[in-house]
Specification:
The protein is α+β, with helices and mostly antiparallel strands. The chain is built from 6 helices and 14 strands. The radius of gyration is 20 Å and the shape is elongated. The relative contact order is 0.14.
Length: 280
Amino acid sequence: MTKTFSHKQPYPLGAHIEGGGVRFSFVSREESCGILLYDRQTGILSEKIPFAGEDRIGNVYCRTVEGIDTKDCAYLFYEGERLVPDERGRVFPKRIPYGKARTAEDMKAGFLTEGFDWEGDVFPRIPYSQVIAYCLHVRGFTKHASSNVAHRGTFAGVKEKIPYLKEIGVTTLEFQPAYEFMEVPLKEEPSGKPPHVMEAAMAARPAGKELNYWGYKRGYYYAPKAAYAASRDAAGEFREMVKALHGNGMELVMQFYFPKEVKRREILEILCFWVLEYHV
């Protein structure tokens, strides 16, 4: 059984494990909003936790929830009857095939697994004057059968191609957007209202034009793209790929697309996160 209490330090936003609980911080102008907790494996709703007036500082609600098993828990926020995925979610456990439209409920967020063994991994820190860079799209790079990899179109597939990349002299891989993004927009709610402002522009595009292959759009910037993973653990697979690159004296650079409404402070937080968590 969970226990909750108000928290007066709302930043950083999102969901963060702190001490014996999880601190949830959510921006909303709605009075009726809160947290939905789910069983990570079954997707069944286990608890609905409304934010209270005492949780609010400006338009930010913050409440700490104790008694959560983060290995088995997933969550969404809600506003009224609308489900709202966490833009700052670290993991999105549900496997959705590439190119298939998702609902907000498909975007339940989970928590990063602790204790990944980097085995003394160090950044190569290759001088710019010695860099030979190779820019690629993770899915496109190995998706064709001619790539001769077992895990086509994935981070694991990129790892399999390291010997080839070394052979042609590449020192630095540059990924086109490989954070979580919607290659097709989230499905609309019954009201016809786009489920989130970040999807409004895509939802308005003509039929047949929905696929955003390249990923240059606003996304869920704290999570590797699940559809680019061969396994159910996109975060672990991404880390294994980076560790293998570094072990071969190679480095990884990530591209991000930030529309003007993303604040500079948030951008800095995102970039620092990827350096610290994923060694890019």
